[in-house]
Hints:
The chain is α/β, with parallel strands linked by helices. The chain has one domain: Maf protein, CATH 3.90.950. 44% of the residues lie in helices and 20% in strands. It has six helices and five strands, in the order αβαβαααβββα. Strands 2-1-3-4-5 form a five-stranded mixed beta sheet, with helices on both faces. The chain is globular, with a radius of gyration of 15 Å. The mean pLDDT is 97.
Amino acid sequence: MTIFPQHLTQLAESILTEARKRGLRIATAESCTGGLIAGCLTEIAGSSDVVDRGFITYSNDAKVQHLAVNPDTLEKTGAVSAETALEMARGALKVSRAQIAVSATGIAGPGGGSDAKPVGLVYIGVANGKTGNAFTLKNMFGGDRAAVRLETVETALTAIRKEIEAS
């Protein structure tokens, strides 16, 4: 039995297999998902040879302290922004032994949204220390809190898989 839908655990298994083939390790830096991305990867037995570590940095202070997100970035663009997502992913690379890092920051709801940043807005950041590639994905997910969080996990895992395949 698993706590994740089968399609997500299958995706996680494919990521672990491909990362092993390439000798890559993964780190996660999560806010709105609260560790679900790392949780999905580590749902697979034997994942410790690929998953280096995961950071749950829900507060701005945690983002600054553990991932070296620039306080000015948080002040200017907010925690839910492409800039913050990218700094989170790059920070996870710097403080880990991973070659690929993924981050997620967003508004899962049901409250906390605004006209500028509505519920369902999630930024995913990916940083590849091997290739130097780094990018963000802006997403607008629908549904309740659980749906937003699970869509974020799926989108983040898909981004990791594509980045591994490009490495």
